[in-house]
Amino acid sequence: MAEAVVTGEHPAPTRLVVLAGPTAVGKGTVAAAVRADHPDVWLSVSATTRPPRPGEVDGVHYRFVSDEEFDRMIAEDELLEWATVHKVARYGTPRKPVEEALAAGRPALLEIDLQGARKVRESLDRIPGVEAVFVFLAPPSWEELVRRLVGRGTETEAERERRLETAKVELAAEAEFDVTIVNREVRAAADELVALMTLGARDGASTPDPQTSEA
Ligand code: 5GP
User: Fold this and answer.
1) Residue at 85 is within a domain
2) Radius of gyration, CA atoms only, the chain
3) pLDDT averaged over consecutive 10-residue blocks of the chain (215 residues)?
């Protein structure tokens, strides 16, 4: 059974789902499928210092910012959490839009790395009345994860090696999460995620799908 962390005394907590998992497992693709099929779900747009990949749109996939701008966001406490990912770029979740979405009663989804998920857990008391569920998106196997990373073709060889090293550490963190969703097929994984956020979420029920195993 999914265990949610509830803070504050909000009568009908709004559900915040934090989706993490190893590199190339498909977090971004699953989040995009959620966005496409469930416009009621609010998806956080992270700030990042990495340059855009082909096809990525500023303000849609990420807010692409300079190092100086990222420093300013940290200094002014504009980020709910931030982390340096794969030792190359910084990524962070702008705090205000998350708070506004939750205050408006919309289920909210953060797709972030493991370090970020830990930081959100630590700072939950700063978002009153939120009910948070931490979801680990797992690959069907290690071989499949490597295949997806190579197949994506967006990283250099050195970058891939670095990401796979990070992935080994990230896979070992699964037990820290409330729920695991195995990403065998994007749409099924997205549906499982949405079920956690909306239907059945309030009474703590999780999806009965055999693809879902819970930590
Ligand atoms: P990519 O460069 O492939 O888009 O993302 C690299 C990693 O950064 C992914 O694991 C992704 O989940 C993570 N990431 C994206 N946005 C955030 C964020 O706002 N905070 C943190 N901590 N990680 C993020």
Assistant:
1) no
2) 16
3) 50 78 91 90 96 94 97 97 90 95 91 94 83 95 89 82 87 95 96 80 41 39
Asked, for residue 84, whether it belongs to a domain, the answer is: no
Query: What's the CATH number where 181 sits?
Result: 3.40.50.300
Where in the sequence is the domain holding 177, given as residue range(s)? 5-44+107-195
Atom of ligand 1 nearest to the CA of 119: 22
What integer pLDDT is reported at residue 192 of this predicted model?
Answer: 94
pLDDT of residue 90: 98
pLDDT score of 156: 85
CA 82 / ligand 1 centre spacing (Å): 9
pLDDT at 128 (0 to 100)? 74
Residue 206 pLDDT: 40
Instruction: Out of 19, 46, 82, 183, give the residue to mutate to test ligand 1, the one with the largest number of ligand atoms within 8 Å of its CB.
Output: 46
Q: Which of 17, 30, 113, 183 to mutate to test the pocket of ligand 1 (most atoms within 8 A of CB)?
A: 113
DSSP-assigned beta bridge partners for residue 15? 131
Cα gap 189→30, rounded to integer Å: 7
Domain-located, residue 206: no
- State how many domains the chain has: 1
- Looking at residue 53, its amino acid is R
In a domain, 125, yes or no: yes
pLDDT at 11: 45
